[in-house]
Structures
1.
Amino acid sequence: MPHLAEGIARFQRDVFPAKAGLFARLATVHRPGTLFIGCSDARVVPELITQTDPGELFVVRTAGNLVPAHTPGTDGVAAAVEYAVTVLGVRDIVVCGHSACGAMTALAEGRDLSGAPAVAAWLRHADASLARTAAAGRAGDVAALVRENVAAQLANLSTHPSVARALTQGDVRLHGWVFDIADGAVEELPAAFAYAA
């Protein structure tokens, strides 16, 4: 923890003064243009990858960058998506997968997750991704599963009423990305691949 306290001190001493005007504006205005749905993995930092300032991205991070399909009831991911689209009026939504994803690796390799039942239950939201990868003849291929998972999560995202409505009205665009940790590359999936159900 001392390194976090040191980081806060450096932020307050070196970073904040240079961006004081930005933070003063952000204290009263919250208008991000993009909802970025990424993995909880500590190696994937949306603001670093996109080189955006505070206030530009509305970020949701989940294990495996999973977005459950819409269902009635309370759901933290659904609430964040609805807020971003309906209240904040984001114009773009990115679902970003990444290389060496622990969630996708566990699924591709069929790892026993009985000791982590909450994780196992959460990863059921990637069942369609596994099926898509198997149908493409790439079962067990982590990189293929990462790509298929981004596409499947975009399909899930479009089942949310706020997103479906915004898509129909042309108010929002969906994007599927895959970030490669080793070389820093970001691949944007072709729209046809990303939206295939």
Note: The chain has a mean pLDDT of 95.
2.
Amino acid sequence: MSTTETLFTRTDPALGAFSIRPLDPFSDAELLHAWVTHPKAAFWMMQDATLPDVEREYVRITAHEHHQAFLGFHEDRPAFLMESYDPAHLELVGLYDAQPGDVGMHFLVAPTDTPVSGFTRAVITTVMAALFADPATARVVVEPDVRNTAVHALNEAVGFIPEGPVTKPEKEALLSFCTRARFEAATALTTGVSI
């Protein structure tokens, strides 16, 4: 699969065109390094990563059978990082009862000096719509740091329901779930097909 291949597009009524393509751990590493080491990305836990560290991490992710990484664009400019994973095999093994159709998700919005109102919500809506565009996805699972109250509010805005805290090796996380129906109800989007 070519890394320039657009996998998903969505037009946000207020903010315009969003798209997602596979991440290239080599050509995208410098961009990602600037994002994941930025002070606003503290919960990404890569603050001290070097450029080779970032490249190695995303080579590992893109080669993994149960983990994928994607680069998201807004109006054709890189704007966010998205990861999906199988929680039956990664991140949450033994911490909850995984169900068929569960998909784990992480996302990171690029740091900016000129924030746009509603942008992060448009990004998470795009990420969720992309995940639910796959008919095999029944439920999205997230495990953000319990202290990350901003992302908890965003998650709830797109339909996530907190299950409760779980202890992971690197953090105390708030396990939360969002079904297709809850996402559609929260966002008034139909996710049956790519937009």
Note: Residues 29 and 52 are 8 Å apart (CA to CA).
3.
Amino acid sequence: MRIHVVDHPLVAHKLTTLRDKRTDSPTFRRLADELVTLLAYEATRDVRTEQVGIETPVTATTGVRLSHPRPLVVPILRAGLGMLDGMVRLLPTAEVGFMGMVRNEETYEAHTYATRMPDDLSGRQVYVVDPMLATGGTLVAAIRELIERGADDVTAICLLAAPEGVAVMEKELAGAPVTVVTAAVDERLNEDRYIVPGLGDAGDRMYGTAG
């Protein structure tokens, strides 16, 4: 597994405001959207392309376009929905799937309660979006399902990561074609499995605490 921490002043600036507890939900959603687009730019450096001939107003030339099958973007519900627009803005021709996952607050194990994506992902590049890589359980479960469906190149895009979650992914997904792209790897997890210093519960900060 590869992990890429995006070192860019605009990324650091937006992340600082996301961390601030005074940042309200509308501002949090907007900044998360902007930050995801910056992360997606780095995450898609190896997106697969094919050559195509075109005619410019001056002459014929050769360019590139995204190859088929098209990339698949998979947000993990619910907080991952807040990252979807930032991804498809950069990859407008990508297809979109969904995975609904919930974490058992006693065992911290993740369970899938809903999926909406192709059964066969053979030859597909998949971009999983989830704001927080904390314990790693949710992303490990999600990526395993994608690989079982045939995905041969999976990139997880997270706003923040904890070293404990990174270690779990490296252990559980050893040898798998997985890359993690994040704005920062923070200090640690606390006793409640929240990232420290972190930014709190990303879903609640995006959408409130309803439900």
Note: The longest strand covers residues 49-55.
